[in-house]
Amino acid sequence: MIARDVIERIVSGYDKERIKIGCLASHSALDVADGACEEGFVSRLFCQKGREKTYATYFKSRDVISGKKGFVDEVVIYDKFAEMTTGEEQERMRHGNIVFVPNRAFSSYIPIRVIEEEFTVPLFGTRGMLALEERGEERDYYWFLDEAGLPHPQAVEPEKIERLAIVKLHHARKRLERGFFTAASLEEFKQKSSILIEDNIITKDDLENARIEEYIVGPVFNLDFFYSPLDCEVELLGIDWRFESSLDGHVRIPAPQQMTLPETQKIPEMTVCGHSISTLRESLLEEAFVLAEKFVETSKRLFPPGIIGPFCLQTCVDKDLKFFIYDVAPRLGGGTNVHVAWGHPYGNSLWRQPMSSGRRIALEIRRAIENNRLEEIVT
How far apart are CA 181 and CA 203, in angstroms? Predict the structure, then answer.
């Protein structure tokens, strides 16, 4: 792991009047760039050729007849995302006073080892916690949740599936996507996995290492939190939930028609393709904060200095109104683009102005600069 004092020395040498906010151009980069714009920072997004138009054309800052349009200020385009970690590119980032905001795309396209040991650019967030998302590792987020005493679905073996369970593994062809499926018995597990292997949606090797856990029947809420090291406070900025393909298409089809689908369509895929905004009933809000407080305190104990900035607890609520955390994002969540430009009822009400996750990041960076505490919010 890159020593924190190395990063502190780097950021202490930055020109504080010319700080720029950087992000890999995918996942939640629009939220980051919009937030930077709202707080008066220049944004720099790092794109891959063939996927750059969203950032370099459609939302790029430009002058029009009526004034300014767009909010992505600077774009760097590579043949492959991996090029951004070369020594030369990292030097350009440091020379440009970049504070880099990690998202899931960053830790998916760039190997964790490179992020932890070679990418010497100040990260807004906790570098050492990004590896928690690598399911199956000894210290993944299930280990963390157990350490924190936080509720999560219990693991089951295929032979012991007696009620609905979900099987979590990678998609065979779309390696950054899911090959998840559900089963309520060993027989159903074998039948579905056989079809999915034959259709090249999952592989035998991935299936052997899959996480199988009880399926919590209930609505899902992605709790988008923010921890401020400057204030030592947890904030709930917003809540979102996902649209999943082709699962959401299946639930719109009457059950008799679902049963007549061909084998290639019968088992839905759960690839996230969008998000929507949500709220919680007020009697559940305090319990949501209890989850967040335990998460923060455990992060300080296991990964000092602890979580910095945004994190997302992906939860289900069962029939007894109990939370279960089924996934953890120790960085900016994937659904925060629903907050772009207009914020969210919780963040807006707390700060008395539109407060998206991206803007909250930029605000924390601005407050840290103004109080000579920038070293406290980067790793």
Answer: 13
CA atoms within 13 A on the CB side of 240: 25
What is the predicted pLDDT for the residue at 232?
A: 97
**C-alpha separations of 54 from 27, 51, 103, 109 in Å:** 12, 7, 17, 18
Judge contact between 292 and 330, C-beta under 8 A: no
User: Token digits for 70?
Assistant: 């767009």
Sorted by where each starts, the structural domains of the chain and their CATH numbers stand as: 4-125+353-377 (3.40.50.20), 141-149+218-329 (3.30.470.20), 158-209 (no CATH)
Q: Is the pTM of this model over 0.85?
A: yes
CB 144 within 8 A of CB 132: yes
**Do 12 and 375 touch, CB atoms closer than 8 A?**
yes
How confident is the model at residue 338, as a pLDDT? Answer: 92
- Block mean pLDDT (10 aa), the chain, length 379: 96 97 97 97 98 97 91 98 97 98 96 97 97 89 97 96 94 80 95 92 92 96 98 97 85 88 84 91 98 98 98 98 97 92 93 97 98 97
Distance CA 93, CA 11 (A): 11
Query: Going by DSSP bridges, is the β-strand pair 220-228/233-246 parallel, antiparallel, or unpaired?
Result: antiparallel
Helix/strand/coil (H/E/C) assignment for every residue in 140-166: CHHHHHHHHCCCCCCECCHHHCCCCEE
Q: What are the DSSP E strand ranges found in the chain? A: 20-24, 42-48, 62-64, 67-69, 74-78, 98-100, 165-168, 181-183, 211-214, 220-228, 233-246, 270-278, 309-317, 323-329
What whole-number distance in Å separates Cα of residue 80 and Cα of residue 256? 46
Q: What is the pLDDT of residues 181-211, one digit of tens each?
A: 999 999 999 999 999 999 999 999 999 999 9
Q: What tokens appear for 229 in the block? A: 């090291």
